[in-house]
Amino acid sequence: EKEAAELGKGSFKYAWVLDKLKAERERGITIDIALWKFETPKYYVTVIDAPGHRDFIKNMITGTSQADWAILIIAAGTGEFEAGISKDGQTREHALLAYTLGVKQLIVAINKMDTTKWSESRFNEIIKETSSFIKKVGYNPKHVPFVPISGFNGDNMIDVSTNCPWYKGWEKETKAKATGKTLLEAIDAIDPPTRPTDKPLRLPLQDVYKIGGIGTVPVGRVETGVIKAGMVVTFAPAGVTTEVKSVEMHHEQLTEGLPGDNVGFNVKNVSVKEIRRGNVAGDSKNDPPKGAESFNAQVIVLNHPGQVGAGYAPVLDCHTAHIACKFSELLEKIDRRTGKSVENSPKFIKSGDAAIVKMVPSKPMCVE
């Protein structure tokens, strides 16, 4: 708190704890995706603090693709809320990315309620607007708790606030109906996703570190399968095969890493130059991952000035890879809600269209 105040970033004070990099600390923005953990009465929670500034959408994609659930933080301040959910706003873009990247459980925290003097009508107005826009994105508002908070003052974060006697609490209807008042209770009401431990190992690398006295340590989240010491892993599309010496999480040795775990693992005789972020590790003896020469993808055009045709080569973010891929052929245009084909081999697609497209990556890439 003291350090932040000295730099004049008082209102950023709690993000400050997570904003570790010096560049971030001086700009007052969350850049990399920080991994932090805390415990609730029910869960161990790993926070992937996804950044809220447009320049950092690539990191937001890496972070979000690793999340089980998301808290969409909405600023209640006059003008601030409207800017976030406007057509070009960050709130809208982040909600859409989260849904598209498979984060299906959402909590909405309506923050800075102290700046609205805890206005019930403002809270209800924001719920109404936000419900309609997350519904368009794909979320069912009935499954989403809406919690009024002040992160700065701690209201409704862990303890029930006395500043909003009108607030009756949140409720959501998923597998069973759940109710509560605080953000902490909403976190504990998340349904843990089923973990595919029986599938072959897939572990997209988020980073590769060289650690003195230990060697090469790739880091990433286990998506499927199990990783353990002694296993011989293959990295695709790099084509490197090696033995895992040890696996750890949060600086503690693990006997095995399971789906959902953010792990670091030490590998034998591999230099940092041979493997990189975006590679995927798998078990060399059980259906190891391979690079793809081409693949067919379902593509939705969200907003693009003009038309998109064969030859277009955008950068694709897939798990942790970030690679330009060419649209080599538009196979069919489909109805984005039902997935049914509406036109074969269209010449172009435009904003709002969905299509099946044959994509060719500009360099080897792992996609399944």
Automatic annotation (TrEMBL):
Its main location: cytoplasm. Gene3D superfamilies: P-loop containing nucleotide triphosphate hydrolases (3.40.50.300), Translation factors (2.40.30.10). One of its GO terms (cellular component) is cytoplasm. SUPFAM superfamilies: P-loop containing nucleoside triphosphate hydrolases, Translation proteins. GO terms for molecular function: GTP binding; GTPase activity; translation elongation factor activity. It comes from the Eukaryota. It is found in: Cytoplasm. InterPro entries: EFTu-like_2, G_TR_CS, GTP-eEF1A_C, P-loop_NTPase, T_Tr_GTP-bd_dom, TRAFAC_GTPase_members, Transl_B-barrel_sf, Transl_elong_EF1A_euk/arc. The keyword GTP-binding applies. Residues 1-197 form the Tr-type G domain. Keywords: Cytoplasm, Elongation factor, GTP-binding, Methylation, Nucleotide-binding, Protein biosynthesis. Belongs to the TRAFAC class translation factor GTPase superfamily. Classic translation factor GTPase family. EF-Tu/EF-1A subfamily. PANTHER family: TRANSLATION FACTOR. This is Elongation factor 1-alpha.
